[in-house]
Amino acid sequence: MFCRYYSKSIPRLSETFAVSTLLAAEMSHFDERSGIVSVETPWGKWWQTISEIYIEVNVKEGTRGKDVNVEFKPSTLRVDVCGETVIKGDLFSIIKPDDSIWTIEDKKMIRICLCKGREVAANLWKSLLKNQYEANILEQDNMQKKLTLQRYQLENPGFDFSSADISGNYQEGGPQLPSYND
C-alpha cells in the first residue's frame, strides 16, 4: 500500500521518483508471484514483460565476461561466446539499446535484459528474432494473458493480479477499462 505524503519542502520530482520506484518494485514482485512464460531455445530461453525482454544463454562453465560479446542495436542483437556466434539477427521489434544490459552469472549463464521500444501490453513479441526462436501458439496465448494482467496491475496499484486468470478478449492488451479517476 502506498501513502502519499505532500509537503511544500519536498520537490515534485522526488514524489515522481518515489512512485516510479514503487511501481518498478511492485512489477518485479508481480513476476515473482505469477511466474514467467518462457520459450525454450537450443541455447537457453527467453521471456517478456510489458517493458522488457529477458534472455538467458547457457554457456560452458568457467566462461568469463571477456569471453562474451553482446551487441544490441535498436533492431538487431548479436551474442558471441568464445568467438562463436550464438544469437544473431533482426529483433522482432525495436528496443532501447542505451537502457538494455547484460551480465554473466556464476560463470555459466549470460542474462540479457532488452528494454522494449514500445512498453504496452499490445506489444507482444511472438519471437525473439524475426522468424527465429518463435513462441508456439499456446506460449503466445499465455504470454498475452500475462501482459494483459500486468497492464491491469500497473493501472490498478494496490490490487494483486499475479494469481488471476483471464479469458475472453485479452488479445492486443485486452479491452480498455473505464477510469474512475475522473
TrEMBL record:
GO terms for biological process: protein folding. InterPro entries: CS_dom (IPR007052), HSP20-like_chaperone (IPR008978), NudC_fam (IPR037898). GO terms for cellular component: cytoplasm. One of its GO terms (molecular function) is unfolded protein binding. Residues 39-129 form the CS domain. This is DgyrCDS1728. The lineage of its organism: Eukaryota, Metazoa, Spiralia, Lophotrochozoa, Annelida.
